[in-house]
Amino acid sequence: MQSSVLSGKTYFIRTFGCQMNMHDSERVSGLLDSCGCLEVAEPAEADIVIFMTCCVREAADTRLYGQCSSCKSLPAPPGGKRVIAVGGCIAQRDGAGLLTNLDNVDVIFGTASIAHVAELLEQAFVEGGHHIRCEEKDSGAATDMPWHRAENYRAWVPIMTGCNNFCSYCIVPYVRGREKSRSFEEIVDEVTGLVRIGVREITLLGQNVNSYGRDLFGAPRFAELLRAVGDTGIERIFFTSSHPKDLLPETIDAMAEVPAVMPQLHLAVQSGSSRILKLMNRRYTREHYLALIDQVRERIPDIALSTDIIVGFPGETEEDFEQTLSLAEQVGYAHAFTFIYSKRAGTPAATIEDPTPRDVILERFNRLVKVIEDGAYAYNQHDLHTVVPMLVEGTSKKDATRLLGKSPKNQTVHAPIPEGYTVDELIGKIVDVDVDRARTWYLSGTVVGSPR
């Protein structure tokens, strides 16, 4: 799809937030490529600057305002006119209201409108002014868009959009809409096509993948989807996000029985206190969550578990927080994303008054981080003096002579580039690493055998 208006124009995309946003950025990039645009490495080189935004935490708004405003001081672009666009969740939430704080924005497009980015940009170049599209219902056209993947060996595969859970602190259902599953056959066909062109690893994406298919079939079919995707020949399957209330026994069985499903599970707990979980509208208890962990580990004993935890939810007491600490100690996570609660206007939790002093919340947060770090260090010791297959992604940011990649359990792995190879020859290959060091956030060792 060539566009005479956009053809030859340069573009830069900056992405904030979750994997779904990253995939949306790949779709936008692919669309612009098909219009004859050229991707560049810096905003200063771009005729089109696009910010793909997240609004889960307040810091995301601040980053957007800062980086978008900084575009005012950029030198003139190659084509003589620069168009600034904001997409993603903040765009969906605020729409034209963004212009109150960002008067240099020309295009605003919501989460359900990314298929219309090219026409909005064309209008901005030809007509000037502001062009806004933030429809609430996703037409599904985005999944048919061309896409520009960051890596040839790995891909994001969305299986559904939206969320029906309405956790009391979360803005996502308001900006991503209700759950809408993609066709079962369409997903399997997409993965089959990716395998044909050499993709080795996929991540299945959804706000709650465990409920995949409920809107289409009346009941979740995620376990069945895992098995079907595993039959395509893909080598590595990850998935996110996974809600505990919908993690069914048949899904755990599929994880254990499909060789391509990697032994890693991100299961967000958010709090270890049943009282706080009820206030969060998470619809499970501490006991239910821990029982799930036991079920998973019974089927996949060495699985790497990761999670999300919020500290400082309104009304959280020291006793509630101690429950979170003890749960984290009991589970022994391989990794965790820990956050201080961020009030989001429009959510039920935003109306709850909380007298807890900020320094108390920070002190609790630091205590939790220490427990998580201790658990991650202990978990990684399981792989010390073993051979771990690493999918090579590139080199370490700190040392260009050392490979960087991921294990089947999504651990970061480092190893010196083996003699006789360049890093470019190894990106996208799997190498075996004899692990001689296991630290909190990485494994390292020496490559043994030949790449494959």
Protein model, in words:
By secondary structure, the protein is of the alpha/beta class. 33% of the residues lie in helices and 21% in strands. The strands form five sheets. A six-stranded parallel beta sheet has the order 2-1-3-4-5-6, with helices on both faces. Helix 8 runs parallel beside helix 9 and helix 12 packs parallel to helix 13. 44% of the residues are buried.
What can be said about this structure in brief?
By secondary structure, this protein is of the alpha/beta class. It has 14 helices and 19 strands. The longest helix is centred in the C-terminal third of the chain and has 23 residues, at 358-380.
Largest sheet: 6 strands, parallel
Shape: globular
* Average pLDDT level: 92
Placed side by side, the strands forming the largest sheet appear as 2-1-3-4-5-6
Rg: 23 Å
Per DSSP E runs of 2 or more residues, the count of β-strands stands at 19
**SS content category:** alpha/beta
Quaternary structure: single chain
Through-space gap between termini: 37 Å
Strand content: 15-25%
Fraction of residues in helix: 25-40%
Helical segment count: 14
Runs in which pLDDT lies below 50 for 5 or more consecutive residues are none
